[in-house]
TrEMBL record:
Keywords: Membrane, Transmembrane, Transmembrane helix. It comes from the Bacteria. InterPro entries: YkvI-like (IPR038728). The chain crosses the membrane at residues 7-24, 36-54, 88-109, 115-132, 139-162, 182-204, 216-236, 256-282, 294-315, 321-342. PANTHER family: CONSERVED MEMBRANE PROTEIN, MEMBRANE PROTEIN. This is Uncharacterized membrane protein YkvI.
Length: 347
């Protein structure tokens, strides 16, 4: 029974880490899948297979080598020097993405709860600090509460869409994009999100005693991510191309289910931002603990203060330069993980 509970904790943490703010708003799904019309159904299935295979492999390998942080896994895959360099690139990007996540939390408080922007930032940081005092276990508990709500909302959106005239449009939508861009999109999406999830998936795998538990957690988690991508694509396809005009397309769809569902959806957007922020701060702190002699609490506070500073200005100019580089690093990293052979454990 304890192993079964652990399986679902791993699966929910996997889903919650991948399903961040970009996923919740629908912009990522629209950009990487829905805009490619009927091809998206096939590419989502491809992405789901990759999430199951590579996410499970990442956690299994982390468990095998006893990785304390994602830097340990990078050095195991690429060697000491190149692995260390890749980890530093990831560190910079993760700090940037965390700054945007924090800014997003402040925006939710300001635009949807009529509270001050700084209130959202401070409450998010304070909540993160207290949650991280209990380590990976607190992250799993948080996602075990949030992810089931997200899955229920996905089912509601599917059931609502099935009653609309455009319910079958996900099978018939056309696209003007070239086939190379169609098939590159799921690879980029999967690579980017798996690398972004590394800070929490690596310690999650290494701190789980049973290899079987890790494998089933990865399988269920990867399948859950695929289900949520497909549900969002299904809903947005029914309202193409008009849905593209919205900054938060999934918010527009949720509003059609009534004020209660829309309110729950706003809360879930914040919780998804919050859970991703917590997970990334945790992963970064583990890496920095290996490089400094500072206490975990001091490192956590330092990371959040840096993110707070950049959240005042946005981080778009730096990310516009780093994202293309990060995209190449992600594809290179995923290719290396794909071809890296490990012997399966039977324990």
């Amino acid at each position: 029974m304890k192993n079964r509970i652990r399986v679902f904790q791993i699966a929910f943490t996997y889903i919650g880490t991948i399903v961040g703010a970009g996923f919740a708003t629908g912009r990522e799904i629209l950009q990487f899948f829905t805009q490619y019309g009927h091809w998206a159904t096939i590419t989502i299935l491809l992405s789901t297979v990759l999430f199951i295979w590579l996410g499970t492999k990442m956690m299994t390998l982390s468990r095998k080598i006893g990785a304390k942080s994602y830097e340990d896994l990078n050095k195991h895959l690429f060697g000491e020097r190149l692995g260390g360099s890749i980890s530093l690139i990831m560190l910079v990007i993760l700090m940037g993405v965390n700054s945007i996540m924090l800014a997003g939390a402040g925006t939710v408080f300001m635009e949807n709860l009529n509270l001050h922007y700084q209130t959202g930032l401070i409450l998010t940081m304070v909540g993160t600090f207290f949650i991280l005092r209990k380590g990976i276990q607190s992250i799993m508990i948080m996602n075990s509460l949030v992810v089931p709500m997200m899955l229920i909302l996905s089912v509601l959106i599917i059931s609502q869409t099935m009653n609309t005239p455009g319910a079958t449009r996900f099978l018939t939508l056309t696209t003007e994009h070239s086939l190379p861009s169609v098939w590159l999109a799921p690879l980029l999406y999967t690579a980017f999100n798996l690398v972004m999830a590394m800070p929490v998936l690596v310690p999650l795998g290494s701190q789980t005693g049973s290899a079987r538990t890790v494998r089933w957690g990865g399988i269920i988690g990867g399948a859950g991510v695929g289900f949520m991508i497909m549900s969002a694509h299904f809903a947005m396809s029914a309202q193409m191309p008009g849905i593209t005009q919205f900054e938060i397309p999934m918010g527009s769809i949720a509003s059609q289910l009534g004020w209660f569902v829309q309110t729950v959806y706003i809360i879930l957007i914040f919780l998804e931002i919050f859970s991703t922020f917590v997970a990334d701060v945790y992963g970064i702190s583990l890496q920095l603990q290996q490089r400094t002699s500072l206490s975990p609490q001091t490192i956590t506070i330092g990371i959040m203060l840096i993110c707070y500073f950049f959240s005042q200005f946005g981080f778009s100019s730096l990310l516009s330069v780093l994202y293309p580089l990060f995209g190449l690093v992600c594809l290179f990293w995923i290719l290396r993980l794909s071809i890296f052979g490990i012997s399966p454990s039977r324990r």
